[in-house]
What we know:
Layout: H1 6-22, H2 30-40, H3 47-53, H4 55-58, H5 64-76, H6 80-88, H7 93-96, H8 104-114, H9 119-127, H10 139-155, E1 159-160, H11 161-178, E2 183-187, H12 188-192, E3 196-197, E4 200-205, H13 209-213, E5 217-222, E6 225-230, E7 233-238, H14 245-253, H15 256-268, E8 272-274, E9 277-280, E10 283-284, H16 290-296, E11 331-332, H17 346-355, E12 360-366, H18 378-393, E13 400-407, H19 418-421, E14 426-430, H20 439-451, E15 457-458, H21 476-486, E16 489-493, H22 503-511, E17 516-519, H23 531-540, H24 554-569
Parallel strand pairs: 4-7, 11-12, 12-13, 13-14, 14-15, 15-16, 16-17
Antiparallel strand pairs: 1-3, 2-4, 5-6, 6-7, 8-9, 9-10
Amino acid sequence: MSTLTKRQILDALGQIAFAAELLPETGLNGPAFSAAAWTLRSSEGEFDEMVESGELDKRRDIGKQVKEAVRALATDGAFAPLDEMKQQIPIGLFDVRKIKGLGPKKVRQLWQELGVTSVGELEYACNENRLVDLKGFGKKTQDKVVAGIETVRQFLGKRRLDHALALYATLQAAAADKAPDAQLHLSGALRRGQETVAGLRVVCTGTDGETLAALLDDAKVEDDTVTGTFDGFDVTLHLPDADQAMAAVLYFGAEPDFCARLVARAEELGFVYDKSGLFDGEDPVEAADVDEVFRALELVPAPPERWLDPVPLVVEGQAGPRLVRREDIAGALHNHTTASDGLHTLVQMRDAAAAAGLTYLGITEHSHTAAYAGGLDAGALAKQRQEVDALNQDHQGCPVLLGVESDILKDGALDYPDGVLQTLDVVIASVHQRYRATAEEMTDRMLAAVRHPLTDIIGHPTGRLLLGRAPSEFDVDAFLTACAETGTCVEHNSHPARLDLNETYMAQAKERGILISIAADAHSTEALSHLDYGITIARRAGLSPDDILNCRPLDALQQWIADRRAAAAA
């Protein structure tokens, strides 16, 4: 079977959809492929399993052409019509399509009428005002394209944390197949758990550069380094001596300023620390793991999430910070079921939460303004209250809290009358529609929501989508000040497309005494694992269990909500 991951196959379906609309003579139904890619995102498991089990053939929500493509991609790792279309389409147009507002028809027009074949050529065309007189475009559209180019430039060549981790797993599997004795150790930004990364950096032992080069496209072998691409992503493989592997993981895994301080510390002790490893004169200082490298430097080991500036080095004998761990999380407060836009039922979500070791689960469907996401009106919310109360009577699994993810409306009000909100165990207030608001208007809107006496938590505050949508423009400092004054909790949405608040703002929240809720925002049972990403970012921000609301046991959580609401009402 193919080694293509689910994400790689979905990306290929998106490419087919785009290419088919640029080349209508192929006879492929581009919109059908686009719709299928969206539909199949919510399917569980890998596509090769779907093919083998016969589930693919049984599906009625996707057409014959899409099934043929999925089958080919899942079994052979390629779909011949896509390969043929890529021979006819300039490769740069696949980057042009990422610019907001440029659908396939407009991209085809830019290609055919202006000769645009890349983002750079499109930028030049805008500089020459060539889009102004182009039919269907104009000055306003050109200005939007210019802004979109700048956004895409920030994202090109980067991948989200979860996608990069999946790609690394695929690389590991490929290495195990070609070089069974090879040992791969993750390093670089991905080891630190950054939200997005621009490439993979891996330390390898047990094999040679030529063998590893066979894993990559456009590979180059220079001294003790192999570079190339894997699934179109930049990869750097370092080949130190085996006894220096852990020193190399730390050296290449730390941010430059943090690494420079390690090098300076080594010099203080009479050692030499560089890309070759850690040495005491001519003698290598061996280490079985990274913690031993820190101890050789007479330092308290720092976790990878904290190999960054300005995190200080902690000398042995001093106490390092107690960072939050997954086992500290008692419950998850922001989750959805089939009642709105989730994939699994209330019972399934409850049971999955218990199986994941959670001691309570918050169900917070979308509110009625979010009709596009199956938002609940007051009647449906009351019905769900009855279901939750009945479920909690069976004393199985973990207790379920009934809440809501209320839309923050244009004026900052919440989406239900206070009488409805008061019946809920927890209220999360989130912005989902921006209404083209100015920064000043968005600031006023956020402050109004924070000051609402029934707002317990502000959900995904900046509204960003990693590599997709920039954060909302508003005064975050004023927002955090208001949260500190009112005792309102701020969410870190752990969905890997969001990871919002970011580590910088979370650290600022900690300094102000603001509690953080690490939220899975799970729309399926398997998505409860999003909490792991949130833990990573919280550790980068230096958060301890005391800084996190849902590290509290259920009775303490309920008491906090009661006290906060009483104080806010007063």
